[in-house]
Amino acid sequence: MSILQFYFLLLHLFTQGGALRQGVIGGRESVPHSRPYMVFTLDLVTQETCDGFLVTKDFVMTAAHCSKCKVIAFLGMHNKNELRIGDAILVEPFPHPKYNNSTFENDIMLLKLQKPAELSNRVRTIALPLYENETFTHNCLVMGWGSQTANGTSPSKVLREANVTTGNCTLPHIICSEGFTGPGSGDSGGPLICGDVAQGIVSNRIKKTFAARYTRISHYLGWIYSVIKKPHKYTKG
Description:
mainly beta; Thrombin, subunit H; 2 helices; 6-stranded antiparallel beta barrel
């Protein structure tokens, strides 16, 4: 991709959905670079964006429905104005093999970075659960560069976050949070942080109640480590 093409792609990114306002419904701007595990992803073909989070120097975790065409990742970012073509990292997607695009079942994916992340005060990993179906505090945090409106308009140019309270879900591999406060359109793939541990992945909202649904990470620990520990040879798309 040329610098000129990248410029026009960013211009579209900053202007889509109307005027840029603050993202995450009911949220607030994060302290710049206080969430160093956050990752912004961009599809070079569809121009769709998602969030993710760094779990090792080589892997980003996100939602499987964020897997489209040719995805690049940006680490250590707070403001979209910070995007530079030289900072983009190509990734190889590893969506869960049983992901269902209609029901969002098994909505989890790992992205293998073309080159390992250089850890710093702006780029850090986030801890994962230690045990399958691990219990955790119900007072959690979500964050992302998505919309602050329920109709999916006005994506944020800065990272925003919101406190949410999780409730009971009928499925063991899903976490729910009630109410409008929480992830908006464009926040897919971001983490649900509970007690400094990534317990969930932003997946979707239930239309009738608008409750947010998150893929429960501890339910997939076996699959996660089977992918991370495999030897991988990055293949360019």
